[in-house]
């Protein structure tokens, strides 16, 4: 059935002769430059397998994060992955079926992580985060929650590069005490290249990762056709195989962002 649908799609006047042009960033274990100098990683493997069934195929290019996002915004590429859903992004992007679950959280030096971390403890803390990232968006949402409680906001230290060096600033006096990041990415970097005593202190958010397509370049019909391929690969267990290989989690059953670091309930007293 899927083959017939894709054949009809290929004969449709809406179909384009050019392959899908997709971009990724250096974001291991999801996407990175492999030993052959080509894009590799967990979600790259998933998307490449789906692209094998796409009539025109796909061209996947790895670019710096901000440049990749700008090309997607300007419609110079068809899509980018992996990206999380947000209401603001959905105004200009169409989203594929979910590829995997992602988690975000707060990292600190091991000396700091013996006691529970609450939202209130983030008040007035200096926190490192990558500029222009979804992590920054989530951290600013937590900052808004602090303000609504009448607490002083965090002091955000924005890094241009999302890399191990940014994490290691936790060990330097005078930098930030906390770092906010995608958990899989931060743990991958710490496991590969550092003896640093840096630990995950608190998981704060969970959401799914998707391929995000530019609405002006990819119609609803083309998105549905690509999602049919992903659905078949999911049903066959192929996408799960890639997740298991890379230690990623299967998608959440809904598209919501789950905030796990909520304000502490205020106690009430009888008069």
From TrEMBL:
<feature type="signal peptide">
    <location>
        <begin position="1"/>
        <end position="17"/>
    </location>
</feature>
<dbReference type="InterPro" id="IPR001638">
    <property type="entry name" value="Solute-binding_3/MltF_N"/>
</dbReference>
<feature type="domain" description="Solute-binding protein family 3/N-terminal">
    <location>
        <begin position="24"/>
        <end position="246"/>
    </location>
</feature>
<dbReference type="Pfam" id="PF00497">
    <property type="entry name" value="SBP_bac_3"/>
</dbReference>
<comment type="similarity">
    <text>Belongs to the bacterial solute-binding protein 3 family.</text>
</comment>
<keyword id="KW-0732">Signal</keyword>
<protein>
    <submittedName>
        <fullName>Extracellular solute-binding protein</fullName>
    </submittedName>
</protein>
